[in-house]
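Quick one:
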Amino acid sequence: MYLDYFDKFLNQEPYLHIDEKEWTFIKGYFEKEDVRESLAKVAMTYPMPTMVISEEDCRRDFNKLKGTWVYDILKEGEWFARSEAGYEWPLTYEGKQWYFARNNTGNKASNYFQQENRWSVESSGYPGPKRTWETESFMISLMGAAYSLKLDKIDRSILRTMIGLRKYICSQFKPNVAKAMYDLFKAKNIMDFSMGWGDRLAGFYASMNTELYVGVDPRKENHPIYREQSRYYDSSLTMFETPKKVDFYREAAEDFYYDGYDDTFDIIFTSPPYFNIERYGNDDNQSWVRYGKDIDSWNTQFLHKALDNMLPTLKSGGKLCVNISDVNASSGAKRKGTNAKGWQKICDPMNEFIDEYGDMEYKGCIGMEMARRPNSGGAGTAKDTNQFKESTLDLVEKTKGIRFCEPIWIWEKK
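Output:
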């Protein structure tokens, strides 16, 4: 039942806000179910609780990104990656474990343009922010997190946290990691076959060395924003910085042929979709729509085919760098007649495929530090004994005190 008491929280400026004293009173005086419904209906009268980023914030962060140095974030240290039983290929680079430490410099430089677009995306298991905010039943469910997370107030930041922990927000790639990779390998010409939210594009513009960026992505909503980003970054470069050239293609990576780009790129660096977990849209050029029922089809017909198409474009001495991990997802349900959810191997098959090329040499793997989502099997925070297998629960003890990272697999063309 909607509570008239909540009318006082309508039309607040600049955004919905219930302070600690008020929220304590509400939780103590009203029934929980009525509060959830009332809070949901009030919240839905406001825009989604995206992070407020001004153009000035964007400009300052882009300039900070330009000033970052590789070893500000590239550190030596132990880390582990999401998997069921580890990987066959070593998680070391030049004989040691290295990782990019979490750092938010540069996030606003791309998020200023892409945030609302990114919030429209969903996962296989949870609705994204946009659908959540537009669906009353999802919102009522979401408001339960204000109780289960023991939150002491309600505001824009708190609501954003609730969505991130109880629903799904598609994550950014770190622009500072992209810039660091370009700088580490002294790359001038960049290929990115899964552009995502323009984060590696931001890193390209921030690097002093880079000259050419070729980006491929099938999602039609992204491309007008890529062009907007490019115009903005171009206008932010000084006369002393390297002029940039960008080519964008709205195409599925496995369908795109690289005519005119043979022996062009110093680095191919991307972060493809993680099988059917991330659902960037429902168009038939999306890899999860085409091949998302079966991991073997996705590996061979999307990822391996895309790599096969583009490897001739890599220069001798150039680097192929792919940020991806194995996933816990359903695969082969239609073929096997069951919901075959479990760990799906992406990385070992990918590395075995690349290894078949006689001119490609495995150089190693660098981690990219990630936040540990609560009660996550892959991140080593699993608690729910009904949800997780014993081997997954054991990971909590095995990885205690060790950084959780996503792998960046690195190959070099001879």
